[in-house]
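note to self — DONT lose this again. spent like an hour looking for the file last time. sequence + predicted structure for the chain T wanted, 205 res
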Amino acid sequence: MSTGTVIAIVLIAAIALAAAAPGVVRQTRRRELRRRFGAEYYRLVDDRQSRRKAEAELVLRQRHVAQLGIRPLDQRQADRYAADWAAAQEKFVDTPVSAVADAQHLVNAVLQDCGYPLMHREQVISDLSVDHASALDHFRAACDISESVRAGTASTEDMRQAMIHYRVLVTELLGQPGPGSKQLPATASMRRASTASASGSGPDS
């Protein structure tokens, strides 16, 4: 094989690799975004009706959150919030409306201490999605129910579900993320409320 032929083959191979490189980068980035954002990735693709637009937005979310200086709670803060959460759960049977309000305030306080700015709801969801994508459905559901509570249209069971969603959020934000983690336990009050709701003996039955 002549030197000219070898050079030509090398050049063709180099051109082929250069042409393929952007596609490889896109595929690698796509896999990473799917892994990190999970269901939020697919929700955003459907919402934007474009995979590329959704992926570009998720990359921007990552860059934005990287500039916020998000930090984990120290042990003192975590212990204090765990105690506050237990207190919110204990008051649920007697004053469920107040308990749900306390739970929402607690989550907001934890978010602020972690460095998340409390902007409008969609911005908070956008920021949370970067490191806590698995908790987004709980955040949305808890916020929806809290709005119903303020409007006076939530049932006792609705409020119990809100507390469950908030418990997942608090567990996640206190530094125990992941499907295999141990959530903060429900108190005896919450368990009694669950039994009462199931038997139809709640405050609004």
